[in-house]
Amino acid sequence: MTVRKKSSGGSFSRARKTSHAARSAVVRGRKAPRSKSTPKSASAIGFHNRNELAVAATKSSSGRYSAPDGVRLQKALADAGIAARRDCEELILKGRIHLNGSNVIELPCFIDPSRDVVTFDGMPVDLSTSLLRKQKLGTAESFVYVLLNKPKGVITTARDPEGRPTVLQLIPHSISSRERLFPVGRLDADSTGLLLLTNDGDLAYQLTHPKFGVVKEYKVMTTGLAGEEQLAQLKRGLYLLNPDKSGQTRAKRTHLEDVKVLKRFVDRSRGDRTLLSIKLREGQNREIRRILARVGLKVRELERVSIGPLRAGELKPGLTKLLGKRDVDRLRAAVLSSEVSKNQ
Predict the structure, then answer these.
(1) Does residue 166 contact residue 160 with C-beta atoms inside 8 Å?
(2) Residue 301 lies in a domain
(3) Whole-prediction pTM value?
(4) Residue 42 included in any domain
(5) What is the pLDDT of residues 214-230, one digit of tens each?
């Protein structure tokens, strides 16, 4: 009879060695552990995409939201017709915009129009225009530029909760039905004159941002006869109080490009009046009315007569003009020349 010699460890020892070998094989086949500096994917921690992750958690060292690609949130809002890009930036900083349910209060922030959900004051924003433009790579043919001679009593906004007439209602249906336009800059309800409406967010940003400083000219009729001392005060500049991005009130000095008297009217029956020409590169909220009031002149009529090289010509109040390539090129040239002159 043959007797098989038992191993010193018995069956338990063999099982332990087999288990140890299996664990060693798993460890040898396992990838190197992820370092702490390597970012996790959005899906791995419960987010739908990395843009949502950027809004909810990921921030750069400066504390701003970061993302390597996508469309800037303010540009997408401008493409959707909410407002001009600069105004959209203010809406974001005021906390009125939500991205995928998260409140966005800092810039920059990038989105994917095909996947992300953006709301403005709780209402969903249609991002189809921004998505279409991204697919077309932003070709110039998709942009529309309309010059409007705004009449008195019309509100410079895309929508008015009080039901007052807006500048968009003056755009021909053949244009407004195809393109989502927004006004560039502001004219208050009592002011008249030139206003540009477009879907070109880049140009709108350049025309309204202070660093570009495109000159805009206004004709202003005031009560009383403007004296030389009042004109000197206007040329030196005055400080106006304005709320900053944090909501605090701060004083900011006005910078008028030019002020001159076009005509003085001495009229005992209607009262004395002065017709002024005022040129601005950067406009604050109701700046002309406020600074004239500071020097004792009340505005009776205010009309914007030019935006860079654009003038009304034969364009009557309430009518619009579709700008061609030549006018748009002149406007872009004015933006470039203004930027160069300010950098010198």
Answers:
(1) yes
(2) yes
(3) 0.62
(4) no
(5) 899 999 999 999 999 99
